[in-house]
């Protein structure tokens, strides 16, 4: 018998060892369940009804245990927190695993599990963002807080997130897209906005109805859609002097020319668009205010003729060739019209009354689109009274909007419907501004640089070779044709061209007069363009602002008894508003000492501002 058992000795030893082992583990499980019982009792004041430490319990740490409590046992959060902390401390975490304690209240159970730790592969940046978001109470319900967010709030959040995320190694910038409906936002890296973009020679947009003019972040190209289907057919550019407005206009017009779209320009300052005279596709550039009024009226007639043509021929407006009419420095122009209507000779006044350029312009802004006429309006600042007043709801029709430099709060609201957009543009970067994306949202953009295309040696020789190459490269191989549907516009353009040719032949600029050396130096007769820098007969003013925007102490130009503009200091401003808050009338009190004059302006009345050097001289 013994010999038989001896034969199985290896097996028996193994079985004995196994039994010992099982017993040790059972002992361990028993000890742990005792330990858990006392911990639960001490921590919660309740005695568990049953504790099951699952087999095998683990060698040094528990694998799984279930503690059943009496029905309806209540454990307060604080008690549970302490309890789980004690259990977790008894079975400390290793690099691979950790102990988790859960209270399954509806089943009166506490469940302990040992879980392997999934390695945290998130970057330091992700962890920083996560912990910032965890700490931020505003995102506890993203849908509510994101929807509540006005653009200003969103910008603040974007700024904070971008600064938490820090500079990215690639040199690209963070941008944030909001999806309030889904309750999340996406942070993306985009190519930083360039600080200068030379007008590219290649057609960056093959669509002949898209006139590109700027590059936004992520190499996004901004364009003015001049197609008839576009709901943003007319373009408004706002920019202070020196802000780069003229360059944007040159970009758009050279792009128009290379796409076969001709244009006519009005430039009351005589220095902005003059270089485009004679450029392929340029019908004319008009400088004189009265001629500009004739042009706007002729354009109105052209619009009517085009509409009649569309009607008779039973064609679509899109089938007519496009043309662009540019009115740069619109407020200066309308200021000149207002002055002429007041101080011009009888014939001029009668002519202006009949031409009614502001009325014609208001009609054009609303109706020109379907006739294939596109308007490009340049102003130094957006202004409600001029846009909403005599020229109708012009602004709403200028769906494509561009702003350069910084806007005032009111200006931002008028341009972008948001008082925070366009307020912090980096003005140290030339050509930096806000442009409208094709999705209708305003974005930061770098306007392309298009040098003056003037071939006159005085201009041309000042350009760098690179700039000359841009102009050469942009020149269309074929000049766009100018098609007029009205005799009025055709003959106006012909006469304007004839005038320009004559002016070029005879020269129109008087020689400058140097003042300040000796009294006999130079001629100071009535033809002098300036006297001590002050404008005389020529309307050399720098800007026109609505009378309601004038501030006390400001120097403005007013007509004296002889129809000449003289600088005066405004003493007080009295703006009267109607029930809707619109300006009805403005009274300016001007003059020094006891002799004061009150000048009344109607809702759209503009005040002429002197050139900056004159302001300095008069203060
Ligand atoms: N997009 C641009 N990129 C680089 N430089 C620019 C850009 N736009 C303008 N500049 C620089 O700023 C100067 C002024 O530009 P520009 O003449 O177009 O201003 P403006 O707004 O038309 O001023 P004003 O209304 O008085 O004519 C230019 O001579 C040029 O050096």
Question: What is the CATH architecture assignment of the largest domain?
Answer: 3-Layer(aba) Sandwich
Main β-sheet description? 11 strands, mixed
CATH superfamily of the largest domain: P-loop containing nucleotide triphosphate hydrolases
> Shape, please?
elongated
Q: How far apart, in Å, are the first and last alpha carbons?
A: 131 Å
Radius of gyration based on Cα positions: 39 Å
Low-confidence blocks of residues:
517-537
% residues in beta strands: 15-25%
Helix share, percent: 25-40%
Nearest-integer average pLDDT = 84
Counting DSSP E segments of at least 2 residues, the number of strands comes to 25
Biased composition (Polar residues): 521-533
GO molecular function: ATP binding; DNA binding
Domain FtsK: 218-413
InterPro entries: FtsK/SpoIIIE/SftA, FtsK_dom, P-loop_NTPase
């Amino acid at each position: 018998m013994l010999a038989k058992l001896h034969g199985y000795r290896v097996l028996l030893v193994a079985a004995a060892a196994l039994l010992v082992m099982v017993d040790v583990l059972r002992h361990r499980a028993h000890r742990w369940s005792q330990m858990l019982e006392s911990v639960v009792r001490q921590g919660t004041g309740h005695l568990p009804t049953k504790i099951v430490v699952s087999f095998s319990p683990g060698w040094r740490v528990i694998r799984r245990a279930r503690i059943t409590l009496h029905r309806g046992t209540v454990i307060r959060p604080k008690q549970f927190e302490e309890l789980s902390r004690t259990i977790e401390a008894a079975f400390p975490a290793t690099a691979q695993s950790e102990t988790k304690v859960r209270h399954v209240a509806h089943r009166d159970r506490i469940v302990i599990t040992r879980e392997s730790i999934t390695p945290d592969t998130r970057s330091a940046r992700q962890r920083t963002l996560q912990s910032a978001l965890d700490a931020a109470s505003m995102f506890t319900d993203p849908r509510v807080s994101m929807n509540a967010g006005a653009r200003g709030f969103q910008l603040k959040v974007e700024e904070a997130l971008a600064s938490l995320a820090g500079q990215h190694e690639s040199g690209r910038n963070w941008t944030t897209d909001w999806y309030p409906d889904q309750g999340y936002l996406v942070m993306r890296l985009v190519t930083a906005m360039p600080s200068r973009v030379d007008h590219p020679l290649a057609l960056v947009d093959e669509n002949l109805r898209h006139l590109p003019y700027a590059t936004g972040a992520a190499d996004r190209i901004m364009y003015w859609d001049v197609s008839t289907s576009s709901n943003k057919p007319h373009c408004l550019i706002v920019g202070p002097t020196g802000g780069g407005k003229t360059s944007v206009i040159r970009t758009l017009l050279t792009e128009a020319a290379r796409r076969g779209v001709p244009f006519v320009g009005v430039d009351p300052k005589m220095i902005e668009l003059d270089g485009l005279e004679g450029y392929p596709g340029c019908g004319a550039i008009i400088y004189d205010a009265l001629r500009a009024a004739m042009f706007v009226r002729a354009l109105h007639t052209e619009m009517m003729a085009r509409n009649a043509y569309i009607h008779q021929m039973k064609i679509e407006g899109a089938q007519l060739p496009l043309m662009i009419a540019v009115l740069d420095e619109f407020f200066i122009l309308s200021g000149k019209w207002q002055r002429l209507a007041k101080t011009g000779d009888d014939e001029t006044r009668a002519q202006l009354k009949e031409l009614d350029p502001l009325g014609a312009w208001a009609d054009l802004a609303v109706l020109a689109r379907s006739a294939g006429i596109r308007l490009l309006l340049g102003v130094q600042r957006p202004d409600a009274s001029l846009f909403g007043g005599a020229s109708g709801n012009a602004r709403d029709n200028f769906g494509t909007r561009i702003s350069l430099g910084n806007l005032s709060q009111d200006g931002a609201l008028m341009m972008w419907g948001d008082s925070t957009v366009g307020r912090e543009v980096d003005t140290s970067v030339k050509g930096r501004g806000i442009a409208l994306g094709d999705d209708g949202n305003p974005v930061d953009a770098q306007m392309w640089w298009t040098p003056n295309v003037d071939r006159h040696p005085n201009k041309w020789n000042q350009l760098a070779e690179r700039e000359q190459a841009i102009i050469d490269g942009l020149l269309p191989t074929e000049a766009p044709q100018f098609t007029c549907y009205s005799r009025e516009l055709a003959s106006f353009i012909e006469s304007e061209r004839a005038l320009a040719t004559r002016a070029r032949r005879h020269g129109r600029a008087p020689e400058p007069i140097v003042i300040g050396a000796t009294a006999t130096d130079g001629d100071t007769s009535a033809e002098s363009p300036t006297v001590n820098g002050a404008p005389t007969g020529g309307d050399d003013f720098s800007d026109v602002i609505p009378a309601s925007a004038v501030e006390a102490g400001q120097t403005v130009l007013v007509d004296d008894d002889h129809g000449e503009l003289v600088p005066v200091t405004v003493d007080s401003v009295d703006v009267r508003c109607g029930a809707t808050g619109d300006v009805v009338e403005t009274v300016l009190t001007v003059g020094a000492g006891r002799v004061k004059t009150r000048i009344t302006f109607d809702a759209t009345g503009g005040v002429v501002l002197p050139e900056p050097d004159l302001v300095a001289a008069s203060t």
